[in-house]
Amino acid sequence: MIITKSISTFGKYLMLMHRVFARPESIKMFFRQFMRELYKLGVDSIPIVLLISFFIGAVICIQMKLNIESAWMPKFVVGYATREILILEFSSSMMCLILSGKVGSNITSEIGTMRVTQQIDALEIMGVNSANFLIFPKVTALIFMIPILVIFSIAAGIAGSYAIGMFTGIMTPEDLTTGLQYEFSQWYIWCSIIKSLFFAFIISSVASFYGYNVEGGSIEVGKASTNSVVSCSALILFADIVLTQLLMQ
Questions:
Q1: Are 197 and 147 spatial neighbours (Cβ–Cβ below 8 Å)?
Q2: What is the pLDDT of residues 168-207, one digit of tens each?
Q3: Which phi-psi region, left, alpha or beta, contains residue 183 (left: φ > 0; alpha: ψ -120 to 50)?
Q4: For the chain, domain boundaries
């Protein structure tokens, strides 16, 4: 029963994506929607990304200092471990999990509210491809903004590690800088960005799917928002395993 329902849901998702990725009827209207979603989904997320990344960078630095420092290890290992955690995992995977709660629920509730208030039905009656009109700008805007958010997250996390090192004295800036630069590979940055692109598509498309297929009233919109966040989180974790295996070989 569960397998049948899952296959049916996946089929509905593919059919919706087929409608989403049709050619926009008006490029001018699409660009206007794209800029609006760019600001709402991306720019509005910058403060929370910077805030969380700053404090997580500081916490990682403290934890590395307390748990891996020993007389047998050079002091710069703390900076090296902090950099690897931020770039390879936190700023892409964990940050996208956080954004799935903020951005994903926002998308689901917005489209779901339009569904229950029959605004989507009105678009269909006017001959508009509502899936393309509503969802395509959200998908493209989030995919465009996610790499920028990842870079901001890495920078904020490193700033947090410097701040905690200077204000508490647990780590000198010189040792931290040495660790951050030690055997640095640009490919790790690209891996983080590539993974985040897949995660951005998962968040925007799955959240839109749940909102677009809401049936009922406002209570169902709330349930759909919860289900979309849970599904996005599970799919991001699964994709993280697969992409890490493929990219880091």
A1: yes
A2: 877 788 888 888 888 888 888 999 999 999 999 999 999 9
A3: left
A4: 25-247
